[in-house]
From TrEMBL:
It comes from the Bacteria. SUPFAM superfamilies: Trimeric LpxA-like enzymes. The lineage of its organism: Bacteria, Pseudomonadati, Bacteroidota, Bacteroidia, Marinilabiliales. Keywords: Transferase. Belongs to the transferase hexapeptide repeat family. GO terms for molecular function: transferase activity. This is UDP-2-acetamido-3-amino-2,3-dideoxy-glucuronate N-acetyltransferase. Gene3D superfamilies: Hexapeptide repeat proteins.
């Protein structure tokens, strides 16, 4: 049966991996058995996907990203080059802690900047924007713009990734937002 996705000849796709239609997997990637990757995704060069990873539809993963077991990337997530996911809080080479993996979830439409580190056990909210090099150590609100180590919120971004000023109106789409109980919500 012909695959309905593209994998570069240097990519290693293990039997038992599930890959959606029109997904592209580029040079030197490794997808483990049991991994689930949705349709219309792109995995750049040298991406690793663990067997207990779930990746939604339309996800873009740039070069040199390892997505370890217990990480979930919902639809339309963007992972910048060399961003890092962890899955154990206190790793030691001489102690196996595979039963201690902490789940990490990146919600729909969120962006993780280049070289950012996502500490396990956190949830990144819908359409959040994680700045390049940030270190995420706690949950991030939907639409939050965070930078630094540890990551701190410095503002809000719209659904399309535009930093919002005090009017909370997206200049690109006209979408109007408001803050309710510390959360950014779109006005309908």
């Amino acid at each position: 049966m012909k695959a309905n996705f593209y994998a570069h000849p240097s990519a290693c796709i293990d039997e038992g991996a599930h890959i959606g239609t029109n997904t592209k997997i580029w040079h030197f990637c490794h997808v483990m058995p049991g991994a689930q990757i949705g349709r219309d995704c792109t995995l750049g060069q040298n991406v690793f996907v663990g067997g207990k990873v779930r990746i939604g539809n339309g996800v873009k993963i740039q070069n040199n990203v390892s997505i370890y077991d217990s990480v979930v990337l919902e639809d339309e997530v963007f992972c910048g080059p060399s961003c890092v996911f962890t899955n154990v809080k206190n790793p030691r080479a001489f102690i196996e802690r595979k039963d201690e993996y902490k789940p990490t979830t990146v919600k729909r439409g969120a962006t993780i900047g280049a070289n950012a580190t996502i500490i396990c056990g956190t949830t990144i909210g819908e359409y959040a924007m994680i700045g390049a090099g940030a270190v995420v150590t706690k949950d991030i609100k939907a639409h939050a713009l965070v930078v630094g180590a540890p990551a701190m919120q410095i503002g809000w971004v719209s659904r399309v990734g535009i930093t919002l000023d005090e009017s909370l109106r997206c200049p690109e789409t006209g979408e109007q937002y408001t803050v309710v109980n510390g959360e950014l919500v779109e006005q309908k």
